[in-house]
Amino acid sequence: MVEDYVGVAKAAKRAEADGADGVIVTHGTDAIEEDAYFNDLVLDLDIPVAFVGAMRAADAVSADGPSNLLTAVRMITRNEFHLSEEPSGVYVVLNETVHAARDVTKTNTTKVETFDSGPAGPIAVFTDDELLLYREPGSYSSDLSGCDLDTAAGMVVPIVTTGAGADAYPIEQAISGAYDVDGITVQSTGRGGSAPEISEASQAAVDAGIPVVRASRVHYGPLGPSDEAGSVVITEDLPAWKARLHLIVALTVTTDLEGIRETVEEGKYGTPVVAPSTLH
Question: Which PROSITE patterns did the record assign (predicted)?
Answer without folding.
Answer: ASN_GLN_ASE_3
